[in-house]
Amino acid sequence: MTYTIKITETSPQALSIINMLKALSLDYSFLQIIEDDNSELTIEQEKELESRYKYVLKNPQVGKTWEELEKSL
């Protein structure tokens, strides 16, 4: 089971909770702290994804379907 706790504030209370969780993660292997500094795509990444999407639409014969890829795994 996985839980996600998102703390976006930098108030003293929020930082206290973050520090407590970091300390607990040292003693408990089931607890992992993953910092997500930037979950948004950059403009360059958005342009690249859009370019790839357009390419796939124009060239449907290139590549494999999900079913083909899944079978090859």
Overview of the structural elements:
- The protein is an all-alpha fold and 73 residues long.
- The protein has two domains: 1-37; 40-73.
- The chain has three helices and no strands.
- The chain has helices spanning 12-27, 43-58, 66-72.
- The relative contact order is 0.06.
Keywords for this structure?
73 residues; mainly alpha; 2 domains; 3 helices
Question: Which helices and strands appear, and what pairs or packs with what?
Answer:
Layout: H1 12-27, H2 43-58, H3 66-72
- How many domains would you count in the coordinates? 2
What is the string of helix and strand elements?
HHH
Largest sheet: none
> Poorly predicted ranges (pLDDT <50, ≥5 residues)?
none
Task: Estimate the mean pLDDT confidence.
Answer: 88
User: What would you call the structural class?
Assistant: mainly alpha
Distance from N terminus to C terminus (CA atoms, Å) equals 26 Å
Q: Give the DSSP E fraction (strand runs of 2 or more residues).
A: under 5%
Number of strands: 0
Amount of helix: 40-55%
Rg, nearest Å:
20 Å
| Shape call | elongated
The number of helical elements comes to: 3
Give me a quick take on this structure.
The chain is mainly α. Helices cover 53% and strands 0% of the residues.
